[in-house]
Write a structure and sequence with these properties.
Elements lengths: L1 E10 L2 E10 L10 E7 L4 E4 L1 H10 L2 E2 L1 H12 L14 H43 L1
Parallel strand pairs: 1-5
Antiparallel strand pairs: 1-2, 2-3, 3-4
């Protein structure tokens, strides 16, 4: 069976991949039937020939998940260079943010309780003074 997958090129610690069509039984870096494009994870560059990809899929070739993702981004016109990942917070940083949020909520609750108590005291004071004046 023919499969569309990645073939590793590049040197040690500087991987680059070619998107190739090859027999499923051949080794990862073996001889390819056809090269459809490339993917460089270091620079996040991707290029794929969508017409040839469609041809090979119509003939019955299956593609890997990574190749499907690259093809989807190529069809949408989105580049991996454009996507920005939010930095993940460490456990310590998450705990610190939760503690700050909890302290802020407690301070707001205490301020609200004081305001309600002051309003209640203000409401009782004129009611006590009104009968004395009459």
């Amino acid at each position: 069976m023919v499969r569309i997958r990645l073939k590793r090129t590049g040197s040690l610690n500087a991987a680059c991949f070619r998107i190739v069509v090859m027999d499923q039984r051949s080794s990862r870096d073996g001889r390819a039937i056809e090269e459809l494009g490339y993917y460089n994870p270091r620079t996040k560059e991707e290029k794929i020939n969508l017409e040839r990809l469609a041809y090979w899929k119509s003939v019955g070739a299956s593609s890997s998940d990574v190749v499907d993702g690259i093809a989807d981004r190529a069809v949408k016109g989105v580049s991996r260079k454009d996507t920005v990942r939010k930095p993940a917070l460490s456990k310590k940083a998450k705990a610190k943010l939760e503690a700050e949020a909890k302290a802020k909520a407690e301070a707001e609750a205490a301020a609200k309780a004081e305001a309600e108590a002051a309003a209640a005291a203000a409401a009782e004071a004129p009611a006590e003074e009104a009968p004395a004046e009459a």
